[in-house]
Write the structure tokens for this entry.
Amino acid sequence: MRFKITVEYDGTNLLGWQKQLDGPSAQEFLEQALFAFSHQKAEVFSAGRTDAGVHALAQVCHFDIETSMDCFHLREALNANLRILEAPVNVISAEQAGSDFHARFSAKKRGYIYRLLNRRANSVLLQNRVWWVPFPLDIEKMREGAKYLLGHHDFTSFRASACQALSPLKTLDKLEITRQGDEIIFEVEAKSFLHHQVRNMVGTLKMVGNNQISPQDVKTILEKKDRKAAGPTAPACGLYLNKVEY
């Protein structure tokens, strides 16, 4: 029986989604919790890998086990064992899925948000939850620069050197920037992303907002197809996987 679950996690002390030999991961915690009550070793597949320090509001996963449990009690059993493990992971929902469903390959779109705290004073309550930038940012210029990134492009300039994607060509469907109180929120959507693409775009747009580069420079950076031309990689703590569409 195949189950589809939606999961949230605090990535602060995780080495990312994928199992690692040298530290905890969201995948490892879920597989341990699953084994604890089912006594079955099942691999948990996700809609996408997240890096160390990146959070998830709605990561989607699937796994196959033999069980007579209904979805409600399956979710409760998973969460009970995650609490025992003191895992920063929680299952929001669980449902049965068809055998042809795959959390990664069936996904049609993924959405991320990036939270940037833009005020002079830091926040003790938002530690490891936002990127703190203490100097003023021009949000209108950032929006203007973001327009050049929408659509189908070669995103080599915004791709991590360790990226394993076969092609740098991606289609960016949405990049909206809004201010909510002291925070600047980036909402980004695409079918898939390159490694560090969102964080590299945010780091570059922060430079636009700080008048280090012009909005038009974003177009030039994109066309150069050179990672060295773009801005810094924004910290992982501000990034959240917040939706997966099927």
The chain has a mean pLDDT of 97.
